[in-house]
């Protein structure tokens, strides 16, 4: 935003930033350099492969990222989908796969909505079994311990680690913390009261874990899910991946069709009653708590909200599955929150380099004297280079522009849009299609050419309510090339400023 305002006002700007031991400075000068928004940051290249994250973690950090992703799925995405379905009265387009996905998530939430904290504990206990028993057994069924690769080598060799099933132990503090955090987050999403005065205290946590034991009898027995096994194998075997994706797309289409056939029935028994309750209680905050959900955006800075507690316990339980080292709570918080501590030395260096460029601007030094800087104290390295010129964009043959360009048109206040359109065509060789002032359209070619509104004949001072001392007006104009028979709108045209002359 600041960059855009500086370009609009044509004033210099120095952008700077730090990230741990790294820092940068970019000098932005009107008409001479690129703007900040003209360039994109390079990919950091630290993305963890999907297979590693989902099935073959090599270090505890991979478990933390997996837990972070799961947090979003369990406590944010599905809750948002549910609220969207209930609050939006529009019917769902059964042909839209994205909308059908939202509907599926909402239905899942409706079917399994807890009514009390005990139900939240039950859910947490079943999830523990899903992630650390069933999913591990599925993986070991897909790739047994004696499985060989195509080359005849053991499949389970480093960096791949063969996982082990993790049996739930209510007396294990880590297991207890996971049950407590998961149950408390589930209760928070559904606005259910947590019946513990200090739910983050160890005594309360152990009590919750012991209460979860009563649901051991409800833990389902392991059954091989052949479709899931095939999916796992496809993700590992890249040659099968495209085939599996195609198969999955076909299944999704079939599922969408099936859901579409029963859509009215689903709407009647599941969605419509809740929508009606929502409409009837829009102004009742207490009633809305029992109707809508409270999606949880991951917040690293609140230690009391169970977010980091959940990720810490979940990640370390997965680390136990794969015989990886535990990560302490604070480190988990830093990694999950992607917190990189600020370094005073980096800040001081960048501030000093930035000050040098400010002095150069004040002294009106030449462009070749200015320097952009990339700094990395960890290496250490300092790269200083001359700012690059603004990139030119070809609008049409013989017409190139950059981000600093503004088209200025001199007209009297008594002139009108018709005169503006004519002048733009004469000066720049382009047809004005639409004219927008302060975000409001004042001329739309497609409509005005069929049904003239009369606005093109009105003087500027009447059409725009110009003040007596106003000397200019910025308008946004879309253009087309007169030589283009299709009349396509051109990209990259600059703002137009009308300069009022006496």
UniProtKB/TrEMBL annotation:
Pathway(s) served: Protein modification; protein ubiquitination
One Gene Ontology cellular component annotation held by this UniProt entry: nucleus
Pfam families tied to this protein: ThiF, UBA_E1_SCCH
A single GO molecular function term of this UniProt record: ubiquitin activating enzyme activity
Database matches in SMART domains: UBA_e1_C
Record's keyword terms, sorted: Ligase
Keyword Cell division assigned: no
Protein name, per record: Ubiquitin-activating enzyme E1 C-terminal domain-containing protein
């Amino acid at each position: 935003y600041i960059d855009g305002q500086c370009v609009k006002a044509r004033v210099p700007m120095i952008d700077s930033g730090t990230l741990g031991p790294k820092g940068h400075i970019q000098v932005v000068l009107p008409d001479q350099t690129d703007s900040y928004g003209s360039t994109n940051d390079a990919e950091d290249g630290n993305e963890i492969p999907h297979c590693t994250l989902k099935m073959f973690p090599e270090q505890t950090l991979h478990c933390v990222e997996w837990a972070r992703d799961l947090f979003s799925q369990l406590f944010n995405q599905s809750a948002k989908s549910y609220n969207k379905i209930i609050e939006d009265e529009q019917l769902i387009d059964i042909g839209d796969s994205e909308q059908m996905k939202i509907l599926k998530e909402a239905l899942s939430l409706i079917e399994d909505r807890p009514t009390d904290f005990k139900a939240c504990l039950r859910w947490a206990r079943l999830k523990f079994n899903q992630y650390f028993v069933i999913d591990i057994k599925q993986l070991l069924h897909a790739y047994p311990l004696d499985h060989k690769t195509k080359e005849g080598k053991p499949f389970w060799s480093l960096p791949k680690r063969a996982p082990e099933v993790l049996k739930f132990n209510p007396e294990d503090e880590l297991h207890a913390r996971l049950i407590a955090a998961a149950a408390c987050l589930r209760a928070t999403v559904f606005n259910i009261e947590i019946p513990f005065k200090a739910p983050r205290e160890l005594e309360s946590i152990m009590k919750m874990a012991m209460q979860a034991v009563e649901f051991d009898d409800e833990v389902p027995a392991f059954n091989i899910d052949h479709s899931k096994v095939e999916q796992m194998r496809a993700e590992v075997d890249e040659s099968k991946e495209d085939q599996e994706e195609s198969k999955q797309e076909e299944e999704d289409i079939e599922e969408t069709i099936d859901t579409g056939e029963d859509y009215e029935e689903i709407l009647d028994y599941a969605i419509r009653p809740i929508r009606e309750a929502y409409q009837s209680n829009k102004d009742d905050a207490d009633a809305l708590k029992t109707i809508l959900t409270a999606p949880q955006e991951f917040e690293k800075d609140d230690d009391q909200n169970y977010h980091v507690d959940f990720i810490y316990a979940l990640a370390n339980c997965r680390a136990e599955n794969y015989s990886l080292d535990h990560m302490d709570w604070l480190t988990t918080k830093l990694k999950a929150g992607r917190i990189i501590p600020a370094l005073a030395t980096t800040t001081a260096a960048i501030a000093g380099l930035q000050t040098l460029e400010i002095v150069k601007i004040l002294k009106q030094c030449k462009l070749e004297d200015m320097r952009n800087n990339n700094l990395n104290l960890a290496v250490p390295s300092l790269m200083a280079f001359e700012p690059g010129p603004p990139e030119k964009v070809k609008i049409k043959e013989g017409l190139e522009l950059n981000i600093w360009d503004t088209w200025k048109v001199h007209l009297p206040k008594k002139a009108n849009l018709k005169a503006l359109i004519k002048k733009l065509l004469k000066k720049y060789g382009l047809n004005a299609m639409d004219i927008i002032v302060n975000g409001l359209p004042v001329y739309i070619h497609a409509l005005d050419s069929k049904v003239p509104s009369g606005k093109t004949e009105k003087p500027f001072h009447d059409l725009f309510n110009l003040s007596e001392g106003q000397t200019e007006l910025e308008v946004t104009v879309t253009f087309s090339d007169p030589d283009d028979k299709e009349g396509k709108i051109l990209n990259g045209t600059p703002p137009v400023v009308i300069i009022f002359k006496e």
